[in-house]
Structure formats: structure tokens, C-alpha cells
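Data availability excerpt. The first of two example chains:
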Amino acid sequence: MKRGDLLRHLRKHGCHLKREGRSHSLWTNPATGALEAIPRHAPLTTDVVIKKRRWSAFYETELDAHLRSLGTQYIIVTGCTTSMCIESTIRDAAFRDYVCVLPADCTGQPARHDATYSGHAASLKIIEMSFGWVSNSQHIRRALAGSDD
């Protein structure tokens, strides 16, 4: 399942969506040269848009206050780059007592040409061991739908 499919499924099941700052669902329109949102990933008018200022979505933003006002306990985190933005956001969320779930197929990062290890894989292990749950979008989708298949 792709990130867009998970977003549509979450909306269908009444989940509140938070989008931070620059979305990685952007493309450069060759006709105009402008940076535009991929239409299927663009925020809806009902989505809350929070401007992200640093790697963590919690750093100097109103995200924590907004989530607390909704009584949020669980957060599903998607995006780029696993070892920077994703891990930083999940760590900050865990420090604030949220339970985080990371669909590993909805995050990633480019591999360095000289790397002897995968930063993505290392972050998944760190998150799983200390800060949250690592799953995949299909399992999350089934859990939200109440399906055991």
C-alpha cells in the first residue's frame, strides 16, 4: 500500500490528519517550474496544516497542544527521511507519552553511496526497540477496519 492509499483509508475511518510543513509529496511542474502538491496527496480543507520548523514535527510547533486538545494517544507517522525527521518526531512524541506507530513502507530515505549500513534500517530498529511500534500500512489498515485477515 502506498502512503496516499493509507491517507485515504485513515480519512475514511474518521482519523484526524496533521500535515507538517513542506510535504514530500511535491513535484516541479515542468510547464511553470513551480513546486506543487501531488493532487492525490494535497491537504483537504478539513486537514489541519501545521508548519514544521525543524526535523521534529513537535519542535516549536502547536502540534502537541492540538493533539492534546483532541485527546490523542496514538500517532501514525509517515514521511521522509527515516533517520532524521521520522525518528526525531517519534522520539519527541514518545517523550510526550504518545504511542507511535510507524508503517515502514510509508517512510524511507536515500542511501549514501559510501554507507556500509542503511540509516533507514537502523532507525527502524531504534524506533522498534525504544520509541514505538513498527508495522506496515496493510496491517494498520486492517487494524483500523477491524479485520483479522
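And the second chain:
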Amino acid sequence: MADKIRYPSKPIENMDISKFRTMKTNWEFSAATLGKINERLNKSLEDEEISVAVAGSYGRLEASPNSDLDFIILSQHELEDKKVILNCIKNVVDELSIGPPNLEGVFSEVISVADLVDKVGSRDDTLECRIVTLDYECF
């Protein structure tokens, strides 16, 4: 089983961030928190064929303890019970005291890969995030 969330093992290729204390602290915090989220989601959603794409400060690995978690759930097929998956992620976010995403935006939604591909660049494209974490088996 592939990880539900993947993220870079280094902040920026060929860049020594040790000189930039805040950047280093935020990267370490982001990576550690995403690791905890990933561990919990892999256990609780192991049978779900989904990927979780993170955006915003976590997607850039710039999160701090005050950051919220902006995410989109990707699936190749229509999911039977989206609420179960969303509740599982909400519970993990609550356990780790992470702020929830703004519910008025596109984050915290389930979207099929087909819809994502069809909408990118179209007039219906409301996604303003960079997908940085994928379960490639989903594709």
C-alpha cells in the first residue's frame, strides 16, 4: 500500500536551509506533521483507493502551529461514502490540533481524477492549488 500523502524528503533541492531558521523550523514542522497525518490515514483508510493532495502552507512545507490544512481527496472512481473519509481526515486533523480548511473554498472536498483533469484550465477550474502529494497507484 502506498502512502496516502507524499511529500519531499528535502525542502528545496540543492539549498541549505540551515541558514534560514524560520524556513528550517517550518519545513521540519510541516514534514513531521504530514508524517503523523500520513501514518494515521494509512491505518484508518488503508482500504480506500485515494490520494490526499495538500495545498497552502503544508503544500509548500511552510506550515507553522497556526496553519490550517488545505486538502483535496482524489479518487479514480466515485466513492461510496465520502463522509466517512472526510470524517476520518477531520478526526486526524482535530487530534493533531490543526486548523480546518476554509469550508467556503474547494478544499476538504472529494474530487475524481477525471473531473480534475477535465476542469484544469477550463472556465470551471476553481482549483487554486498545486498538487504535491499523490498516491500514484490511484492513477
